[in-house]
User: Which sequence fits this backbone?
């Protein structure tokens, strides 16, 4: 299992509107397959972007490259919690994901060149403590948008923070806490069995946030 992440070149934003988020979430599904992926740009081209959702365009039997346990999209970077299922599965998946999304982004915004800041980073989850803390960290990452110092345990308004977390769509947190969001993207059985019911997982996530230890976050990278 690995913690995989990457950011935009020169720390630039890689998600500029909801359509970009939907496209990347869709790509998480579409490119997690050993089978070749068709060119799907035409389905979001020109004036057909109005109601694009992250749904597979047809039913097919997939042969997964990885299991996606958790994910989070931030304006200029993303985090993934992955289990590799095949030799070079993560590298193949991230190559397809990065190439496909970059082509979409560059065509949409009429730009050229690399979108991501070099190769993706992959941290092997070797210790149990790392495994336990990682899902919390990934799902709480969006709090940086409203509470920049949350990682240091400095939160000004905890109620507002919880409300924001429960309305942020671009992660797998909602699916683990009982709100159907993008359930087809993640393979949630493993973490659900480990962390328990949606209510328990939500409670423990908020407890982790209240009792945050900055040293645990440093160990995740």
Assistant:
């Amino acid at each position: 299992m690995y913690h995989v992440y990457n950011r935009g070149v020169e720390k630039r934003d890689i998600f500029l509107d909801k359509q970009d988020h939907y496209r990347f979430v869709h790509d998480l599904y579409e490119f997690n397959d050993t089978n070749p992926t068709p060119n799907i740009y035409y389905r979001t081209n020109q004036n057909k972007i109005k109601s694009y959702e992250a749904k597979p365009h047809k039913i097919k039997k997939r042969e997964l490259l990885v299991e996606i346990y958790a994910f989070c999209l931030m304006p200029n970077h993303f985090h993934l919690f992955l289990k590799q299922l095949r030799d070079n599965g993560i590298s193949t998946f991230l190559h397809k994901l990065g190439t496909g999304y970059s082509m979409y982004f560059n065509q949409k915004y009429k730009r050229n060149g690399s979108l991501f800041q070099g190769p993706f980073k992959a941290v092997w989850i070797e210790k149990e403590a790392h495994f336990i803390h990682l899902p919390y960290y990934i799902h709480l990452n969006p709090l940086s948008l409203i509470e920049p110092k949350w990682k240091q345990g400095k939160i000004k308004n905890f109620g507002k923070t919880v409300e924001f977390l429960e309305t942020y769509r671009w992660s797998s947190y909602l699916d683990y806490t009982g709100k159907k969001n993008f359930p087809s993207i993640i393979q949630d059985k493993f973490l659900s069995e480990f962390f328990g019911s949606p209510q328990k997982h939500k409670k423990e996530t908020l407890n982790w946030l209240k009792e945050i230890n900055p040293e645990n976050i440093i160990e995740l990278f």
Q: What stands out?
A: Strands lie at 2-7, 66-74, 77-84, 121-124.
